Amino acid sequence: MRIIQANDYDHLSELAANYLIDKIQTNPAIVLGLATGGTPLGTYKRLIKDHELYGTTYKNVTTYNLDEYVGFLPENPNSYHAFMYDNLFEKVDISTENVHLPNGSAVDLVEECKDYEARIEGAGGIDVQLLGMGSNGHIGFNEPGTSFQSTTQIVELAPSTREANARFFGDIREVPNQAITMGIATIMKSKEILLLVSGESKNEAMRKLVEGEVDESFPASVLNNHSHVTIIADKKALSGVTLR
Ligand code: PGA
């Protein structure tokens, strides 16, 4: 794992955006895996700015998002569909037919999981997967204890994840209990992974990721087994972490 140190969140966002812009310009038909949450927001803002100022095009870019809440229609303002359209897709020239998120309101969720996995494979796999990490080490919504062999699946959200995400809802009772998420094996099949880690609240998780064992009790640790992972982390996330 290559670790790039950023001074702060803004710097992290700038480095991450530049990293992705370079990938998109090198391969305009790139298949990107995308993430929601607070961490990638600054990166998305910069991708939009770059698109407006310098015209980097998304016409031939295909995207697959990591996850979606179960029971939410795409129109639900708290859905990850809405998050992605509000914070990126509506503001660049991507074609909606190239945008993919799991359908959390599918009648047959098991079939939806299989179909999502097949769609990713059908696209030739993900070239670059953007990831955040939960303070409990989750990647996507794969909570501690998730099998490293897991593919796209329906999961129960950990109480700490629901608490962390309540800030987007206003009331924790509105945060769903379940989500569809790419599995750990799905994420690991990506050719390349870019993990963003920011802030003191991720400090302990960052330490476990870098210094700890590779173990299903800490999902992000699996990234140590991938041959092409770049981590961009800011000083607060890296404080006291011994880099090997
Ligand atoms: P955050 O979430 O970016 O909002 O901290 C990361 C995650 O839970 O994967």
What features would you highlight for this structure?
10 strands; globular; 244 residues; alpha/beta; seven-stranded parallel β-sheet; binds 2-phosphoglycolic acid; 8 helices; 32% helix; Rossmann fold
Account of the 3D structure:
There is one protein chain. This protein has a single domain (2-180, 188-203, 216-234), classed as 3-Layer(aba) Sandwich (Rossmann fold), CATH 3.40.50. The strands form 2 sheets. Strands 1-10-9-6-2-3-5 form a 7-stranded parallel beta sheet. A 3-stranded antiparallel beta sheet has the order 4-8-7, covered by helices on one side. It is globular, with a radius of gyration of 17 Å. Strand 9, helix 7 (203-211) and strand 10 (229-234) form a beta-alpha-beta unit. The chain is built from 8 helices and 10 strands. The mean pLDDT is 97. By secondary structure, the protein is an alpha/beta fold. It starts with a strand and ends in a 6-residue tail after the last helix. It binds 2-phosphoglycolic acid. The site of 2-phosphoglycolic acid (PGA) has 7 residues, from loops.
